[in-house]
Amino acid sequence: MGGNFNVKELRYISGFQMKPYADGACLFLERLPRRSFLKHIGVGSIAVLAGTQMASGAVEASTTGSFVNINDYNGDIQSAINAVQEAGGGEVYLPAGRYEISNTLTISGHNVTLRGAGKAATVLHASGPDSTKSMILIKHNTDRVYNAKISDLTLSAKSNQAGADGEFVPWFQHGIVLDSSHNFQLNNVRIEYFINDGLRFENKTKNSAGNLHGGPDQVVLLNCQMNRCGNGMNTNDTGHSTHIYGGTFDWNRSHGILTGGRNSVFIKDADVEHNRDVGLKITSGANITIRDCTFEENATTYILTGQTQCVHIWIGSNAVAKSIVIDGCFFYAKSMRALLRLDKGEGVTLTNNYVHKADQFLLGSAGQKVGCFVLTAHSVVNGTPMLKDIYYEDFLTDTITNAASPIDNTRYVVSNLKPTAVSALPEANASIRGFIVRLTVPGKPDELHMCVQVAADLYKWAKINLTIPTN
């Protein structure tokens, strides 16, 4: 058998399709990205797949102690929480219904679980406008709060008043505030319509010696939704160790997830979509892994403007972010300035990611093309590069439009915040491997091009022509 044989090989779950190439002369075998495969067969966002194990250090919250049904307290949730805390811990159960919340619910004891009958069944709703209140506060006077858990309910501050932007006006400030908690778990919870943050971390609790505890640690989120808040989740430059499995962070007025100054963050199988600002912003921190996530339609405030914050992920905006891995993610790239912006980073690795609908901006009256995959703000402080050890591997896209030739696509590798930048890499010790694009030019057959190194820190595109020899 002769002819061309092209393979797009990514590390995803099984899901293959075979289709002829545009001219019918080439058999194209494609391994679908895991999320695209799930959507293709009708499966939406999933949380933790069967057999998935929590990352090391993720500890499930305890539910030892008493069991309290809120009906036994005439619907007084705080009194029920207090009773469980006095018993040394246990579970407060909220049957299906809508509970109007006028004052912040405070969990200050250890081993307390607040559980509803499901996100659609149990709703805690803000009773009126108060921009200073949080709906739930996890806080002790002098100690961390250990093993708190909230599950199977919705927190909503949605009012009945429509704002100028067509959205309903939010009533409370934050959904949940964690102040120096330890081993906190949020499971199957929706948080929506809060003024600032759906989930907010703080570091205000001092021990008996007057020292701050250092913020929340060992925080686990399972299949949660944070929608239409200021930020979906904001770690507020504090704490250590966050694990997010599944769920959505979408339609927020700022970021889906804002994290910084926090080490050991693991995000898997999450959808970060339709946020008005950058979907995931990592201002600083270390040991952060984003795996098998979907990024679509973020930075909608900046769409089609060409601004450098029109990206899905922004790394190192405040300080050097170290040991960052972005692996197996799906990016919907249409109308984005870039997929990723790198300001200050060390040890950043992008592997096995898949890009859909990449195109180039036509910026200004001259129609200058400025689109790219990775946008870098190369800077040197006191002789030290702010970007080093950057590694790109197996970054694939199905289609690039608005590109007249492979030369135009050099701008898709890296752009040093300049529309005229091409393929030179400004980072120290950067490398590209297996970076492949499918070029779509009107009136011409589709072509595959691979980015190859031609000199030190210089990469150009080469057309892929693979021929299978006949025996």
From TrEMBL:
UniProt-listed Pfam families: Beta_helix (PF13229)
SMART domains: PbH1
Key words of the record: Repeat
InterPro entries xrefs: Beta_helix, PbH1, Pectin_lyas_fold, Pectin_lyase_fold/virulence, SCF-Subunits/Alg-Epimerases
SUPFAM superfamilies in alphabetical order: Pectin lyase-like
Residue ranges of every copy of the Right handed beta helix domain listed in the record: 174-353
Xref: Gene3D superfamilies: Single-stranded right-handed beta-helix, Pectin lyase-like
Lineage top rank: taxon: Bacteria
PANTHER family (alphabetical): F-BOX ONLY PROTEIN, F-BOX ONLY PROTEIN 10
The protein's name in its UniProt record: Right handed beta helix domain-containing protein
